[in-house]
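ok posting inputs for the 3-acetylpyridine adenine dinucleotide job
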Amino acid sequence: MVNTLELDAVVVGAGFYGIYMTHLLREGGYSVCLYEAGEEVGGTWYWNRYPGARCDTPSEFYSYTFSEELYKGWIWSSFYPEQSEILDYMKYVVDKLDLRRDIQFNSRVKSAEYDESINRWRIHLNESAILAKYYFPAIGGLSTIHTPNIKGLENFVGEKYHTSRWPHEKVDLKGKRIGVIGTGSSGVQSIIETANEAAHVTVFQRTAQYVLPVKNPLLTEKEIKEIKDNFSSLRKRVRAHPTGMPSFPILRNYSALDDTPEERNRFYEQLWEEANGFQFLFAYNDLMLNEKANNTLTEFLRKKIREIVNDPETADNLLPNYLIGGKRPVVAIDYFETYNRDNVSLVNLKKTPFIEGTERGLRTTEKEHELDIIIFASGFDVGIGPIRDANIRGRNGLLLNEKWENGANLKTFVGACNHGFPNMFLLGGCHYPLGVNVPPIAELMVKRIYDCLTYFKEKGVNVIEATTVAEESWTNLINEIGEMSFYSKVDSWFNGANIEGKPRTILGYAGDFLMYQEQISKAMDEYNGFTAS
Ligand code: N01
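and the output
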């Protein structure tokens, strides 16, 4: 017997988007429940608990800003927060907002379909279904894991973990032979951390990465006070920065090409010593816009790798060769230094690809690598995977994933809305900004969507739906900006190229945060992109 509960709204996923949406809906008098597959809140930070997991956005800006009391009631310990601290922050938020009574944990939503006869979403969990007027999947773009398709992997007798499904119990890495597949943000952090404990770490690298140096000092009492005292200007400062991280100003407001090579090199050396993560990308005002300017930085970073890594062959294999910023830059403490350890070795999969998994490990064209543990730091089926898994059917039973043709025909209106899927708002995921700090975007978009609901509610409207014109227009904008940006010039998850056979398409908004706010305002201010009934 299936019980059917009736609500105004269902939210799925207790990350930054889902929590804020639930809060606003409840404050606005809607009956709402947030369903979360995990046993706690946190979203990304609940699932990604691999060794070394940390955020590369300064903690000061990796927070909600909609409430002064909420902001000031939490004190971050360091400049870049660790996974466990962010998880604690999110628990603090839901407790402070008293949201737990509207959250149901251990509840994976299996599917949802729009019932046109009653204008309601029917949302299916394992044992029950819910009818809701509004549906808000806040399931994240990076939640469907990707694991390389290596023949014979099932024969491996050791342990296997994906970074995004890391066990909650401690995994004993001490004295183990560990293979890490992948050198994105998760891989780099895992490699550095596991090397401290493992007998040996073998890194299986497909594409070499630019990894920017960083330090992570504890915040002093003086800094914490300053952060709190500056709250009144915080949101303004965040929204005035191209990536929503105002601790990284443009240091030289002119082209990198306008300095002499000697001066540029001196300046880059200084920044390397300062080790302030993403700050490098804002050294000059055109590093992310002009390929020649970009090359000055990538040349410098390759030189640093050669200087740091003792073994010339390993150094050579670690040299990236693409536009920095075209794929997500990685930030870490002493990554290249890790390759000088006796217990770390590198396999360049471009030279010696995988042949198969074996009982004892992984065989490449060079040899069999014997391992006790394989860590898959191999990323995600970004954007499209979560929508496929969510099984969302709109009018006439059309699956959203079919409408999008698995990504080949991806279309949205402002990332959130789809023609044929009335009263449904995707929070985060496709067509949201690619390179911008997440909490400020979540706040901006959740509030925009909430205001949109209020606007139509006050007019007595029951059903709103994106028009095809609005959808085409937003999608064209995404594609035009994407094509102009470095994101279309480098293979990565930004464009679907990280997974063999995945349709290549720009998955997100490639402009900066200022442009995004302008475009969103233009697209949503008059609500002309919706039909209402
Ligand atoms: O995933 P990724 P991630 N055979 O896709 C390799 C955020 N994040 O989990 O580069 C062999 O970046 C793949 O190789 P290639 C952040 O936005 C933030 O690391 O595609 N290798 C790559 O090296 C980030 O961008 C933080 O050629 C294969 C790696 O696996 C996003 O999450 C921390 C392969 C995947 O890298 C995703 O990061 C962690 C195959 N078949 C994550 N398939 C911080 O804030 C893939 N790879 C610090």
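notes: The chain has a mean pLDDT of 97. The pocket of 3-acetylpyridine adenine dinucleotide is lined by residues 54-56, 142, 148, 163, 181-187, 206-207, 328, 349, 377-379, 493, 498 (CB under 6 Å).
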